[in-house]
Amino acid sequence: MTEGVFYDTLRQGLWIAVELSAPILSVALIVGLTIGLFQALTSVQEMTLTFVPKLMAIGAVFWVTMGFMTRTLVTYFDATIVPLVAGG
């Protein structure tokens, strides 16, 4: 494997990691900011108020995007990783 192929494969893998994590991280950010704003406005400082809704939102988004994540990873491995391993 040449240095160019290695860096191209690494770049593709990192970009796929960004694509897969973006929906979950963005929902966690939005829910966290919303709950933080609610807590600041109402002076309610309950720890479970931040944890439980964020966990439920992350679980829901993961459940919805699970098919996309699986297809993306399988396509990446079939098109990129497996030929590199088999070829050399």
UniProtKB/TrEMBL annotation:
Protein family: Belongs to the FliQ/MopD/SpaQ family.
Spans through the membrane: 20-43, 55-74
Main subcellular localisation: membrane
One Pfam family here: Bac_export_3
Subcellular location: Cell membrane
Keyword Transmembrane: yes
Gene Ontology CC annotations of this record: plasma membrane
Membrane topology recorded in Swiss-Prot or TrEMBL: Multi-pass membrane protein
UniProt keyword annotations, A-Z: Cell membrane, Membrane, Transmembrane, Transmembrane helix
Species whose genome carries this gene: Palleronia abyssalis
Swiss-Prot/TrEMBL GO biological process terms: protein secretion
InterPro entries: Bac_export_3 (IPR002191)
Protein name: Flagellar biosynthetic protein FliQ
Sections of the chain in a coiled coil: none
